[in-house]
Amino acid sequence: MADPLLRVENLVRRFGGIVATDHVSLDVAQGELHAIIGPNGAGKTTLISQLTGHLTPDSGSIYLGGRDISHLAAYRRSALGLARSFQITSLLLDFTVADNVALAAQAHAGHSFSFWRNARKESALRTAAQAALERVGLAHRGGVLVSRLSHGEQRELELAVALATKPQLLLLDEPMAGLGVTESARMVKLLQELRKEVTIVLVEHDMDAVFALADRISVLVYGRVIASDVPSAIRQNEDVKRAYLGDQQVVTAHV
Length: 255
Hints:
This protein is α/β, with parallel strands linked by helices. The protein is built from eleven helices and ten strands. It has a domain at 1-81 and 196-255: P-loop containing nucleotide triphosphate hydrolases (Rossmann fold). The strands form two sheets. It has a six-stranded mixed β-sheet, with helices on both faces.
């Protein structure tokens, strides 16, 4: 059996007396879409932040492609092929759609950051930006200011920004947040296509999306992984059902 693309071993992160991740261990296979679910406050975003290097674990290890990245800076992890989208959009609202993606491509290429004028002029960056926008269905919106996009389009743009860094592992933190029914369906369809090209770790509260997309699901409760299995097994897991009772009835309905 091939080594996992991502391996997490006994990851611990405390905030004072609160243990946000409590000896978390999991692995993600190459080409897999691995969902991480859990009640509010379970430690999901803290885990993702440790994977990307925005938070340093108190103990434990993170391996990407067999390499220990536990203490690498975020930009170095990005250079190794790890990209993230955030719960709250982190786009440059007064720049165009294409500018946002070109800047991401520029940063990944290791250019001296002489800012957006060079990114606009450099044909290689514009080509990379256009390719990423085509992958998310926003090629026709390249010249539009980000502030004029719908919320759903901004979520799609965040994916294009991440894809412009040529990731081998894409970490998505609640990409469905704030989306309506139609936008959510479009996002699920987009992720179904992207999963053919890149390994994805998905943190998400939308259980319809999770069970439509995931190869495997890990359930995080009070910082601990209480189950990690295929969706059909997670549906039947009594510990998972109990963990959600009183917090998200929509989840218990699905599991």
